[in-house]
Design goal:
Number of strands: 16
Radius of gyration: 31 Å
Low-confidence stretches: none
Structural class: alpha/beta
Distance between the termini: 23 Å
Mean pLDDT: 89
Strand order of the largest sheet: 5-4-1-6-7
Largest sheet: 5 strands, parallel
Length: 567
């Protein structure tokens, strides 16, 4: 929640002369599931074509322009005839061109669409209690709008707003005057016999609701939630246009619903609420949709990210049928590295060399071996092995020959056997149902590929029962799918949406930071199957992630309520 009603209470305490409150309606009490209000006309156009109320050649975007032009013409005509440009929806429909022959039906369709796209601003969920607490105050609604009082009341009742508890509804189209000139405020004062200093007005338009009301001597509060988003929204719109218009208002609201944090904490919260929240909320819904499609109830998010994904899923299942079993699986690239080799051979060596950013030192430490000739190359990445020679051999060949020495091979095979036993023991608590599902952030599905390979080698009947999900994949997923791994991606995968995958891959460190959890990473398993955890997240990194995650969960909570109300 934002601090709107805290501000109202503070203003009422400071100014005892205030005896009445007035609220703007649209973009204050009512939000729309559109990027801008005119998007409603395009939705109406699409429905009208489907219902044959418009000819097929009138594209929804064309109807949007016709509807906009009709409103402009209606206001112009009203100005000429009655010296006011305030109109009603019926006046607009009369101004539509002959191609829009079913004006009455189009008007009904627009009202129906407004009911579908309008939802109650979460700040007003407890408005009944507010009215009870402030029973001594008159509360009115004031709006510049072409809809009639009856229609506006229908919209408000459709979202369970207690319009019947308010003291009056003032609509510019019916009054013939508006807020943008200040005349509607004078009309309200005259109709209610209030003095300007007796009224506190709250609204989202700085000019109409603040400047013009203040010019009349009325107290005001600028409620600018719907205009928030900062530079992030500006740059996003410039590059991508209107992204996710159905949750545009919700994103802006979540962006503002942060209080009592430092400025740095607020920035991380907003990043979570505004940017990561929509993605992660959609990811959680997709996971559950895939589980429902496959009739799977066992869902295993992979740690470290699994800690956060589990929470997202647990929040989402509250709105679904019971029966899901969500359990984080302690696993990492490191913990399945040796078991994933299955056996030590040249194929395993090639897989070792393909590990991103792995160095010669990484190999020596993993296999617990030493070689004086390789020590000076510890910081060299494996992909650079052939760029130097060791004892007249190319680095790649020298390292292979060294690891293939009898005593080294025996050590490596012993480590593989030991780590595989620990991994399989850890899996005993998971592979208990006919089918199950693993979930990871992605990108490559490396952990799930290793898990699948180990299980196919040791418990072949189990591997075929596993579905593997990742948030975003890339073209590297294709060979895995070809090899029989059931690997599915939300945002991309096997080359689909490659641009998105590449963007996330480029910023993967930020994503991993956002997903941080206090439990660290899994480095291996004890003989009992218990995971061996290594703490590596510094406190400041986790603090940033903590506030970003709070923003993500704040958005998800709002999203779930809206999603299951509006479907």
């Amino acid at each position: 929640m934002t601090d709107l009603f805290t501000k109202i209470d503070e203003r009422l305490k400071k100014h005892p002369e205030i005896t009445a409150l007035s609220f703007d309606i649209f973009d204050t009490i009512l939000f729309r599931m559109t990027a801008v209000p005119k998007d409603v006309f395009e939705i109406v156009g699409r429905k009208a074509v489907e219902k044959k109320l418009l000819p097929q050649h009138i594209h929804p975007s064309i109807y949007r322009m016709l509807r906009t032009e009709a409103e402009r013409d209606a206001r112009k005509r009203m100005k000429e005839e009655k010296s006011t440009d305030e109109i009603l929806l019926s006046d607009i429909m009369e101004a539509l061109p002959p191609v829009c022959a079913h004006a009455k039906e189009l008007m009904e369709l627009e009202i129906e669409t407004e009911k579908e796209v309008c939802f109650l601003n979460p700040d007003f969920y407890g408005f009944r209690e507010f009215l009870e607490k402030h029973a001594d105050y008159r509360v009115m609604l004031v709006s510049d709008m072409y809809l009639t009082t009856d229609i506006v009341c229908q919209l408000l009742r459709s979202v369970d707003f207690p319009v019947e508890k308010t003291a009056g509804l003032f609509i510019s189209g019916e009054a013939g005057v508006n807020k943008k000139t200040g005349a509607l405020f004078r009309h309200v004062l005259a109709e209610t016999a209030l003095k300007p200093e007796n009224l506190l007005h709250i609204g989202d338009s700085y000019i109409s609701d603040v400047v013009n009301a203040s010019a009349e001597g009325i107290h005001t509060i600028y409620y600018d939630t719907i205009h928030s988003g900062g530079d992030t929204l500006l740059f996003e719109k410039l590059k991508y246009g209107d992204v996710l218009p159905a949750v545009s208002s919700l994103r802006k609201y979540a962006y503002c619903s942060v209080n009592d944090f430092s400025e740095e904490q607020k920035e991380w919260f907003r990043l979570g609420a505004f940017v990561f929240g929509p993605v992660m909320s959609g990811f959680a819904e997709w996971i559950l949709d895939e589980a429902d499609r496959e009739r799977i109830t066992e869902i295993y998010p992979l740690m470290r990210e699994g800690w956060m994904i589990s929470r997202l899923l647990e929040n989402a299942v509250k709105y679904r049928k019971p029966g899901y079993h969500i359990k984080p699986m302690y696993i990492s690239r490191r913990s399945v590295l040796l078991p994933g080799f299955i056996r030590w051979d040249e194929r395993a060596y090639e897989r070792l060399l393909a590990i991103p950013k792995a160095t010669v030192g990484t190999v020596l430490d993993i296999f617990q071996v030493t070689d004086p000739a390789l020590e000076e190359y510890r910081e060299i990445q494996l992909i650079q092995l052939d760029s130097f020679s060791v004892k007249e051999k190319k680095g790649k060949q020298y390292l292979w020959d060294f690891l293939s020495l009898k005593e080294n091979r025996a050590r490596i095979e012993s480590l593989i056997e030991k780590d595989t036993a620990g991994f399989l023991k850890s899996m005993e608590g998971f592979l208990v149902q006919e089918k199950c599902m693993t979930v990871d952030f992605g990108l490559n599905g490396t952990i799930q590929e290793a898990m699948d390979g180990i299980l196919r080698e040791t418990l072949s009947e189990t591997a075929d029962r596993m579905v593997h999900l990742i948030m975003t994949g890339n073209h590297k997923n294709l060979p895995k799918i070809m090899n029989g791994i059931d690997l599915r991606a939300y945002l991309g995968g096997a080359g689909r949406n490659q641009e998105i995958s590449e963007t996330i891959d480029f910023n993967v460190i930020l994503w991993e930071q956002i997903m941080s959890c206090p439990k660290g990473t899994t480095t291996g398993y004890l003989a009992s199957g218990e995971p061996i955890l290594e703490e590596f997240v510094d406190n400041q990194t986790y603090q940033n992630a903590y506030y970003c995650q709070k923003g993500i969960f704040a958005f998800q909570e709002l999203y779930l309520e809206l999603f299951y109300e509006k479907k």
